[in-house]
């Protein structure tokens, strides 16, 4: 077998996946290993091989069982109680977003992510290894409990972070005597700090170049603005901005080249380069792709030491095997999957394709005037060299041979980059659609320009850091600016649409087509049919239609967006309406850069998980941030046919709608009208309502009726508007009430509740929110009426359905690891 490690790594991965799904115990994993080893000793031929394969499979299962995380540690304290915490700073404040956070290790393996309030106090720079004491409120991290949501708690748990803490106002960390942590880590963080300081000195006052260079060169993303990187994401070139194997490869190649021209032998040069690669991986924050690249380069160096030719797929399998045996949870990490699928695609598809097309000509173009080299080349390469010499001699200018060879080498290089870019875009289409809901078409060409430019920027940028030369910093800045221009131009050509979660059968069929193509491309049989099948499924993956809603059913879903509102309504005849998009309220004198876009990172993933690609109507009930903050991303991602707004709509939202050519309908009180198999009656705001400033009573409120059942959706409507409805509308009865203003005491007065007489009440609020929502008086009134209360803070996503007669409801409680793919996204791509 040409790549003998591929089968073992696939067996280990299958064992890890199986144990993850079926929760194998240690005994269930270990006993089969002993049994199959015994069978392998006694068996012969194919039976022995089968036993060995099963032994490796259960080794993967045993590894997953052994590395299953223990129960999270707990602290007996409420989220409103201020505690005195003492511990070791293991992630300095200088490397956290906006320099407002640091990580505190309270006990070995038990850490807290601490936020400092900068409204009242200046930033405090804390370094690795300092022992500190702080006053803070502490709580376990909480997920958004929606299908398809990012498992933030599990992401932090992998970093041994089990709490988030907020320091008390007008307090700072008290530095305690003594040091903690390891001296080695302290030295690594010192190097990283020195690199950050040098970049800031090279680009004084230039926030764009400082933030981008820190991210590109050392993986420090705290200063990155999302607007700077959005077009890199859209064009599939974001990988050049985050520390990955690409950066390690570029730096290793440059260092190896310098060592070789300094007449250092190959093995010592490889050893020094390996050490440098590992140092860079550590200084860049132990970024997983960089560590994997350093490990792969180390295995390559070992192979060269034993005079073995490294094979891409075999080296890849060896690195994956080591990683999975030491940390089986990596199998479910998108960054791990994308890294290995990218290299696997190069080894499985690109290498044989280039070998059959450009490689013979590339070999021929090396020193084409040296006739003595012809016999040592394959016939095809030798013939091409002879033809080039004949052309130059026929033209009577033998000196043209070298320029022609250089031009052809450049053309072949461009062709090979195009092949690599195209193959990678297609091979990674499935995980890109599954995790990020993007497949970039402009990436086919933008990568041809941006990847070499950014590859050249990396050594130039490090030269600037080491030397402090401003001209090298300016050159790196010019390369970055040119790359950004190329990316922005391509982003203008990129269609502005996203991809819903692919159906399981389509995903499996596409994956199977790629595996068959990888087999047939080497065996050179059934190549064209397998290629056609892979391309057809690739197109279907991109252009899959929206999943139809359940017919003759009205469905209302309260999406868990924390302290905010977002409701999805699916109508009996298939129309889709989203009411509000959640958002994050901000207070204080210092504007904070949000690290989370609720529309992009919370609401959109749920809609995509339901197979929704297009919305018919988006409703902005009123202009408060916890309702409209996520709507710009919703408009971009789902291109609704109409945007409904009430009184005092947010001007920036109207501008976004105009830019996207989305018609805006200003709605107000009007009689019931038919819509997609149901009837909608808009109750508020009144026609002549013109408040001086935006407020909760601006809310667009309406009732949806289907058959004998109805839903009343009130936004943040408060007592004055509830009183007006009581005086002006005889019939307010509804089976389902979306409780106004998150259950605040300013809404849901007793007479209004008596008039509505709901069977089910939905409250959208955040867990442990600082507003005290829902208020105990509101809950008491609902309880007295024997109304079933469902809350997003306790129940997660809530769905109520009706066929016009019966009502059914369910909730989506989050269960860590319940998703087959364990939806853990790469933070580098969310920043």
Features:
alpha/beta; OB fold (Dihydrolipoamide Acetyltransferase, E2P); 8-stranded mixed sheet; 21 strands; 7-stranded mixed sheet; 6 domains; single chain; 831 residues
At a glance:
The chain contains 28 helices and 21 strands. It has 831 residues and is α/β, with parallel strands linked by helices. α2 packs antiparallel against α3.
Description:
- This protein is α/β, with parallel strands linked by helices.
- It has 6 domains: 61 residues, no CATH class; 100 residues, Beta Barrel (OB fold (Dihydrolipoamide Acetyltransferase, E2P)); 181 residues, no CATH class; 71 residues, no CATH class; 39 residues, no CATH class; 259 residues, Metallo-beta-lactamase, Chain A (4-Layer Sandwich).
- The chain is built from 28 helices and 21 strands.
- The strands form 3 sheets. The chain has an 8-stranded mixed β-sheet, with helices on one face.
- Helix 5 packs antiparallel against helix 6 and helix 8 packs parallel to helix 10.
- The longest helix is centred in the middle third of the chain and has 27 residues.
- The protein is globular and about 100 Å long.
- The C terminus is likely disordered.
């Amino acid at each position: 077998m040409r790549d003998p490690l591929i089968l073992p790594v696939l067996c280990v991965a299958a064992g890890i996946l199986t144990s993850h799904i079926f929760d194998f115990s240690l005994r269930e994993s270990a006993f089969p290993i002993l049994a199959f080893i015994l069978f392998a000793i006694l068996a012969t031929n194919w039976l022995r091989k089968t036993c060995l394969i099963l032994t490796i499979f259960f080794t993967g299962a045993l590894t997953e069982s052994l590395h299953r995380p223990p129960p999270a540690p707990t602290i007996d304290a409420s989220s409103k109680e201020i505690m005195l915490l003492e511990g070791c700073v293991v992630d300095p404040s200088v490397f956290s977003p906006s320099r407002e956070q640091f990580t505190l290790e309270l006990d070995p393996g038990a850490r807290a992510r601490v936020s400092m309030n900068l409204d009242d106090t200046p930033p405090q720079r804390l370094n690795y290894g300092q022992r500190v004491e702080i006053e803070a409120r502490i709580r376990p991290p909480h997920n958004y409990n929606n299908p398809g949501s990012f498992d933030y708690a599990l992401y932090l748990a992998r970093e041994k972070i089990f709490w988030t803490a907020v320091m008390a106002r007008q307090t700072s960390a008290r530095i305690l005597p003594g040091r903690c942590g390891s001296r080695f880590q302290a030295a690594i963080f010192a190097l990283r700090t020195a690199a950050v300081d040098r970049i800031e000195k090279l680009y004084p006052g230039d926030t764009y170049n400082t933030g981008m260079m820190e991210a590109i060169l050392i993986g420090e993303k705290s200063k990155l603005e999302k607007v700077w990187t959005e077009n890199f994401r859209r064009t599939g070139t974001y990988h050049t901005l985050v520390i990955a194997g690409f950066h390690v490869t570029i730096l290793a190649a440059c260092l190896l080249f310098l060592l070789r021209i300094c007449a250092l032998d190959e093995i010592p040069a490889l050893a020094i380069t390996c050490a440098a690669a590992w140092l860079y991986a550590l200084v860049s924050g132990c970024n997983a792709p960089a560590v994997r690249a350093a490990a792969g380069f180390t295995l390559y160096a070992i192979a060269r030491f034993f005079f073995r030719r490294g094979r891409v797929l075999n080296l890849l399998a060896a690195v994956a095997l080591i990683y999975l045996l030491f940390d089986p949870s990596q199998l479910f990490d998108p960054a791990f999957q994308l890294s290995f699928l990218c290299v696997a695609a190069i080894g499985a598809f690109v290498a044989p394709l280039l070998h059959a097309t450009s490689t013979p000509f590339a070999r021929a173009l090396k020193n084409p005037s040296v006739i003595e080299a012809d016999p040592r080349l394959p016939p095809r390469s030798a013939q091409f060299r002879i033809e080039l010499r004949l052309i130059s001699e026929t033209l009577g200018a033998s000196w043209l041979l070298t320029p022609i060879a250089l031009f052809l080498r450049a053309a072949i290089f461009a062709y090979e980059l195009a092949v690599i870019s195209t193959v990678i875009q297609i091979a990674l289409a499935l995980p890109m659609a599954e995790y990020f809901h993007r497949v970039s078409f402009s990436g086919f060409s933008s990568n041809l320009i941006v990847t070499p430019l950014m590859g050249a920027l990396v050594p130039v940028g490090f030269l600037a850091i080491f030397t402090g030369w401003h001209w090298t910093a300016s050159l790196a800045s010019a390369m970055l600016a040119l790359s950004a221009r190329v990316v922005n131009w391509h982003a203008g050509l990129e269609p502005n649409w996203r991809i819903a979660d692919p159906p399981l059968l389509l995903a499996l069929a596409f994956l199977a087509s790629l595996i068959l193509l990888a087999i047939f491309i080497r065996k050179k049989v059934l190549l064209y049919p397998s290629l056609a099948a892979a391309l057809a499924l690739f197109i279907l993956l991109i252009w899959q239609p929206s999943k139809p809603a359940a017919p003759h059913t009205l469905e209302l879903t309260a999406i868990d967006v924390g302290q905010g509102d977002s409701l999805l309504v699916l109508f009996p005849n298939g129309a889709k309406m989203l009411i509000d998009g959640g958002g994050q309220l901000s207070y204080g004198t210092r504007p904070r850069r949000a690290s989370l876009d609720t529309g992009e990172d919370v609401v959109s993933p749920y809609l995509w998980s339901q197979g929704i690609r297009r919305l018919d109507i988006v409703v902005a009930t009123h202009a408060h941030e916890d309702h409209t903050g996520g709507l710009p991303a919703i408009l971009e991602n789902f291109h609704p046919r109409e945007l409904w707004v009430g009184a005092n709509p947010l001007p920036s939202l109207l501008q976004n709608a105009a830019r996207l050519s989305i018609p805006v309908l200003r709605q107000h009180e009007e009689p019931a009208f038919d819509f997609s198999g149901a009837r909608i009656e808009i109750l508020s705001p009144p026609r002549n309502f013109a408040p001086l400033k935006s407020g909760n009573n601006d809310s667009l409120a309406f009732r949806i009726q289907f058959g004998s059942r109805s839903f009343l959706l009130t936004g943040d409507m408060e007592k004055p508007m509830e009183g007006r409805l009581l005086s002006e509308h005889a019939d307010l009865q509804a089976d389902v009430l979306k409780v106004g203003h998150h259950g605040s005491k300013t809404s849901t007065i007793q007479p209004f509740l008596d008039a509505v007489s709901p069977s089910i009440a939905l409250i959208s609020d955040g867990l442990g929110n600082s507003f005290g929502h829902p208020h105990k008086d509101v809950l008491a009134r609902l309880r007295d009426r024997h109304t079933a209360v469902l809350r997003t803070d306790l129940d997660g996503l809530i769905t109520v359905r009706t066929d016009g007669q019966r009502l059914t409801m369910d909730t989506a409680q989050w269960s860590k690891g319940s998703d087959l793919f364990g939806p853990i996204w790469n933070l580098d791509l969310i920043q």
